Amino acid sequence: MKFGEMATVKGDRAGTVGVTVVQVEKGSNADLSGLKDASKYADKTPYYVHFKLTKTAEGNDDDTTSHFEVYDGGKQLAELLVLPAMDLTGDPSSPLATRRFERCKDASDTAYKAAAEGQSVDGCAVFLADKGTGTPSTVKWTRRSDTLATWK
Q1: Residue 45: what pLDDT?
Q2: What pLDDT does residue 100 have?
Q3: Cβ proximity of 111 and 100 under 8 Å
Q4: Pair type for strands 85-88 and 96-99
Q5: Does the N-terminal or the C-terminal CB of the chain have fewer CB atoms within 10 Å?
Q6: What is the Cα–Cα distance from 116 to 137, expressed in whole angstroms?
Q7: Please, is 74 exposed, middle or buried when counting C-beta atoms within 10 Å of its C-beta (0-12, 13-18, 19+)?
């Protein structure tokens, strides 16, 4: 499939889900500077996979085993999972502040589960390329070891 085209795949247990890879965007190493231990990403380039999940049938909201894989030719890029950080504020009435990776936000499971049939939820996933790796040319939606859809 081409980027922007929707694949309709079976859910993990029931129903179907529409998966669209909208685009793959090259980021900058500076995007990673705010992460904890940012120095370990010094020679990495982030790529952002912008996607859309469309609820195409009821009963498909428990698919926690499907995920994206990104490739430069035959080489698979590593996915970077960025969790929100909690910072102390010093204010007794609001002691914690949540800090998120604003450059790329994953799709909300809560929003997807609440969506009506036909509605979509936008998301983004981060993949890291080693120095010398080319621009990713293939994105796959997989479940366990099965490829369900491929975009090029």
Answers
A1: 94
A2: 62
A3: no
A4: antiparallel
A5: C
A6: 33
A7: exposed
Give the pTM.
0.85
Give yes or no for a contact between 134 and 3, defined as CB atoms under 8 angstroms apart: no
Express each pLDDT in 118-134 by its tens digit: 899 999 999 999 988 88
| pLDDT band per the 50, 70, 90 thresholds, residue 74 | confident
**What length is written for the chain?**
152
For residue 86, the model assigns a pLDDT of 55
Q: Measuring CA to CA, which residue among 83, 72, 81, 84 is closest to residue 24? A: 72
Q: What is the DSSP string of the chain?
A: --TTPEEEEE-SSSSEEEEEEEEEEE--GGGGTTSTTGGGGTTEEEEEEEEEEEE-STT-TT--SEEEEEEETTEEPEEE----EEEE-S-TTS-EEEE--TT--PPPHHHHHHPPTT-EEEEEEEEEEETT-----EEEEEETTEEEEEE-
For residues 41-60, b (16+ Cβ closer than 10 Å) or e, as one string? beebbbbbbbbbbbbbeeeb
Residue 99 above 70 pLDDT? Answer: no
CA distance 68 to 9: 13
